[in-house]
Write a structure and sequence with these properties.
Helix 3 (about 35-45) runs parallel beside helix 6 (about 100-110) and helix 4 (about 70-80) packs antiparallel against helix 5. The strands form four sheets. Strands 1-10-9-2-8 form a five-stranded mixed sheet, covered by helices on one side. A five-stranded mixed sheet has the order 4-3-5-6-7. Strands 13-12-11-14-17 form a five-stranded antiparallel sheet. The chain has 14 helices and 17 strands. By secondary structure, it is an alpha+beta fold.
């Protein structure tokens, strides 16, 4: 197989039209054998590579060129921020006009990091291991007393916001805000200076030059972005053209960048109690960038009382954290969540038409739960069934139009009672869409 960039777009649309995970995987096994297809996929899905442009100019030329070295040089210059602002827009405009219509659409999908094909790095790496670098952060396991071990433990509120990680670099005076899957947010510019100032002042106040040297002027702040209600927060983070100026960043963890990069390595051991100490010196409990409050609990009963107190305040629940534990980039019993029900986030890969009174409407959303297709038919209003089915029909007709999908590929939160032995969910129920169309951000 020797595809050009026009053919790569055709291949992506071919995969997009397939709702079955198994069929997508079968097609990827073929297409990933092509060098250009693989290069495009990595350029778009690599979470550590961003291009600094949320909106691209419209194509105004009638070029016929395919991707070549100038195309890749442009992407490289943008990812390294060798070009930014108006210079980047001009260069992109020239390239879009030089390329064919299909290839310009492909470039647009790469720069916006949205292939519009209904698959992500997980499926790509399943087909061809280690093709796409993965961006992973620490996630919670359900609370079980036997997992606590030794008291006291740290208990903090489970906030109803959007998970955000801020990558801070004093050398370039930059802060990149990313989702928990590495997708960039472009709406938090008002938080850049407060974040830089807090980190800068923390390092200036640190008496140990050894510790200062450990940070190397680079930090990762992990937290929850909140702008009023959850639905309002979702709306804020999905904005493209204006800043979410009322968003507040609630930070619950921090570490030097290189510790985040080795989070799953055997030699990584930076205890939470140390990280919390740094965070306490770095941020206060108020302001646009603040630390989350914590409480030390010395028994299961005290944990339960604290959890109930958070619930009475209208919060989702509590997170119980083991003080003498490292930050690991995966789900861990070192962080334990307490909620009324368990929940999971999964991408929509298809839809099923309803029967009877729901004929001509949505019967169930089909989601991918760790490789298992699961139908979600509960928790949907009649209005949602009608609008979701219309969106699915529109997505199914979409070819090379670009832009975010209305249904396919979007991440939803699902509540359920338990997982079945075959990996499905018992009594799954639709809760809500997650913050942005193709990723999950929540802790």
């Amino acid at each position: 197989m020797n595809l050009n960039s026009d053919a790569v777009l055709v291949a992506l649309d071919d995969i997009a039209r397939t709702s079955s995970i198994n069929d997508k995987q079968a097609k990827l096994e073929i297409y990933l054998g092509d060098d250009l297809f693989r290069r495009v996929v990595v350029a778009a899905l690599d979470p550590f590579v961003t291009y600094g442009m949320a909106q691209l100019p419209e194509r105004s030329g009638s070029g016929v060129k395919q991707f070549d070295e100038p195309t890749w040089t442009l992407l490289c210059d943008m990812s390294r921020r060798n070009i930014t602002g108006n210079e980047a827009k001009i260069r992109v405009q020239i390239e879009l006009d030089r390329l064919s219509e299909a290839s310009s659409q492909l470039l647009r999908r790469i720069v916006t990091k949205d292939l519009r094909a209904g698959f992500g790095a997980t499926l790509v790496n399943k087909v061809r291991p280690n093709t796409v670098p993965t961006f992973d952060c620490m996630l919670c396991k359900p609370y079980e007393l036997k997992r606590v071990g030794v008291f006291p433990v740290i208990v903090e509120p489970k906030l109803d916001g959007v998970r955000v990680l801020a990558f801070v670099d004093l050398a370039t005076r930059s802060v990149k805000f990313l989702s928990r899957t590495g997708k960039p947010f472009t709406t938090f510019e008002h938080l850049v200076e407060p974040t830089l100032l807090a980190f800068e002042n923390f390092l200036k106040s640190e008496p140990s030059q050894y510790i200062v040297a450990q940070w190397r002027g680079q930090a990762v702040l992990d937290g929850e972005m909140i702008s009023g209600s959850f639905n309002k927060t979702v709306s804020e983070v999905r904005r493209k053209n204006e800043a979410a100026t009322d968003a507040v960043f609630h930070v619950f963890d921090c570490m030097p960048l290189y510790h985040f990069e080795i989070a799953n390595k055997a030699n990584n051991f930076l205890p939470l109690i140390n990280r919390k100490g740094w965070l306490q010196r770095m941020l206060t409990l108020d302001g646009p960038v603040r630390r989350t409050p914590v409480k030390l609990c010395h028994s299961h009963e005290e944990i339960q009382t604290t959890y109930q107190g958070f619930r009475e305040q209208g919060l989702e629940g509590a997170i119980v954290k083991i003080p003498n534990s490292p930050y690991v980039a995966k789900r861990s019993f070192n962080w334990l969540k307490m909620k009324a029900e368990d929940s999971i986030d999964a991408p929509i890969i298809g839809a099923v038409e309803g029967t009877g009174k729901y004929e001509g409407m949505l019967g169930a959303l089909v989601v991918d739960v760790e490789g298992v297709a699961v139908n979600i038919g509960s928790g949907l209003s009649d209005e949602q069934r009608a609008s979701f089915w219309a969106a699915y029909q529109k997505d199914a007709r979409r070819t090379t139009n670009g832009g975010p999908g209305e249904l396919l590929g979007r991440m939803i939160e699902i509540e359920y009672h338990e997982k079945t032995p075959d990996g499905s969910l018992r009594h799954p129920r639709f809760v809500r869409f997650r913050s942005d169309a193709f990723s999950a951000e929540k802790q």
